[in-house]
Design brief:
The chain is an alpha/beta fold. The chain contains 17 helices and 47 strands.
Amino acid sequence: MKILLSLTIFLLSFSIFIGQSFAESTGNIDLLLKYDNGNKASIESTSLKIYKDFDKNPITEIQVQSNPVQITNLPLNHKYKIELYYNDHFQSVDYYDLTKTTNNFEINVKLPGGIKLEVFYQDGQTPIPNASIFFKTMSGKIVGFDQTDFNGDTVRFWLPQTINNDYYSVEVVIDPQLKYTYTPLQIQSSLSKDIKIVTKWPKIINSAITVEVYKDEKTKVSESDGPLTIQVNDKKKSKVVDSLVSYKGDAVISNIPVGTYAFHVVSKNTGEVIASKKVTLSGSHEPIKIFTNDPQLNFEGSYCNCVAFRLDDVQDYFLSNSQIQMMKLFEEEEAGLTVGVIGGVTGNDPRIVNAIKEQLQTNPRFEIANHSWNNRVLTSLSSESQEELIKNTDTKIQELFQVKPHTFIPPENIFEDETISYLKKYDYDNLSASVQTDVPSKIVKSDFYHFNTAVSTAKLDPVTSYWNHNSKEKILESIDDSLFDYGYAVVMMHPYEFSNYDGGAYINEANQTKFEELKVVISTLKSKGYSLLPVGKIDEYDSVIFEKIIKNQTNTSENVNCNCVAFKIDNVQDFWLNDVQNNLINTFSENNVPVTTSIIGKFFGSDPKTVDFLKQQIQDKKVDVAVRGWELVDHSLYETEEQSSSIEQTNNQISKKLGMQSEIFSIPFGKFNNYTISASKQNNIAYVSAMITTDTLNVKSYPRHIPETSYLPNLLDDDPFLQGTIIEKMLLKIKDQQKKYGYALISTQPSDFAIRDGEFKNQINEDKMKLLEELISTLKENNIKIVSLTDIPQESLFEKYPAWIKHVYVWYEQGKITDMELENAINNLTSRMIVVPR
């Protein structure tokens, strides 16, 4: 028994010893990276490879994220080789004998060297301005970018030194098709150095360039094809040179700068462009062949003439008002928008999530792109980490929005070949980076596309963190340049540049000036005939069809025909144009015509002239009053609570000053969402009035939807495409609306009838007021009923029945009869064949 007990104790002690031995068998190294001068080293794009003893393969590789960097779980009592790399360039190596569990160790790294470039044409004397300069490692990773100034100089780049046979390459790009590579560039000193690069391009091509014009693949044009001219335009569409085509079908040009041009074959008699070809001139050329019979023979790639807008950094809470307004703007403009969603910070903000969901339902040109999990540059991460970020964001987008993204926007537009391999693995077929980090190829059919941005609405100042805005003219110019260079344009945007800047920081308030400028850009692009697509549809530019999504699918307007017109005066408020305002309302009341007036709550109640006049009009039952909101703002940017508060505050003010509660909400700018309807229900709003462009008539819902069908000044304008007097044309427009929608609701506001001399004056424009009175008279003469906004549901449903039948439903609405009494009344009318059921 004693022997057995002793053996048990021994085995227990041995197992404890073994356990302690294994627990203490690994150690950690806190590794400090230092320059030769003793300063702490930069860790940008730095990685480590750790080898044990004489192993030829590393036991671990680490992307350095901090300095010191901790190397953990290394078995004790081994010698480790630690290699340091900058991207794929070797930088340093050292060895460490690991005998303790906790260790501190330092590795020295050579100081970076400073390189400034001076770039010249072939003569070595003429500097090249505005050339794009890319510094690349041996594997092609871009580690520096700049554009030369008018002296052909770059900034000074500070790059890690090259060790042994490692080297950098410098790519000089003066056009997407004109690239010159300077290599090898070795940096073997920490001293500053200037390098002169002389490219192979002449400033001016003096030698003759022959252009051959063919009418089929083998036959040149001849004298019988008429006099033809070759006209050469630059990317700004300015004519550079022209030359007459000879009777042999040839033309010759010379004395033209290197670059890319559009060569047009033009009929000298009519000025018609018969054929075109984009040609890059580098200084030595075979004859340029242009075919007039088949335009596709003149192009190596496709040119879609399409523009995509890309909103980066979409995420929870961050400048959310600008994000939401941007989405709504593109929906209203029926333009393509790709939003780059950052997966790790999206999903908790209901405003952002619901805004994206709404766009997916209402805007067929809306696209969600994967913008990675966070803003970390992918090339600074291990391949496994890259895959994890791509996969996690992909999963998050599918969980939140039930859509699979197929477009990827890399953070800071930086990626590498491994990034592409993982994107293909997860079924992505589009990547959108920047032409500064990845020069794209022409549009040719492929299983993976690079649609990179060459245009941005602003540029970040890295010192101040302020986004310097590009003017709308500059944006449009850059779009045209990109279309010329690549056949498409992608415009990069961020919430920053569309938010207000106050006190040294961006605030959650939309910059309306910049939104208005963006609307001008979109309008200009449409006027030029460009297609506005999301990034992921550029490759389908010649086949994609966007089905228009109709909101409010419960529309019942096909059953409506009330032969009636209603009027609405919006934005009633204190003091501002109060004489015009009262006169306008009085015009309706004096003509015994009902009108609805919508009040802005915050600016109502202090002006006796306005308040007393309205109070009397209400007592005389000549006007209805509607809520316009506490302030004149786009309510669709807010959720239920904020919208409900706006309606409630305004109704409280109306009740306090006018002694009544309104059941009508005249929605500012016609913009609303599901929160608007919820807020309306909470405040017992029975009628909501948006615009026919954003809503449809629905007299069976609660609240009832009665959108305005036109704006009065648009009716007053003299339309040159219609015949008759202004009043006759107005009547035609109203009848057209009645035919199309079953009714007409016309809105106006006091400023429409004020004299304007630079600024609005509180004086009536007598001519416009006279036209309004004539319109009212003409409607009456044509037996078109003028009703209140709230009468439209009854008028539309009971137009074909005797007037007294309406009262049954009016009583029901007012709660004067029960459901059973209404049913009995309907059965009675049916049995007497007054109402015939379908």
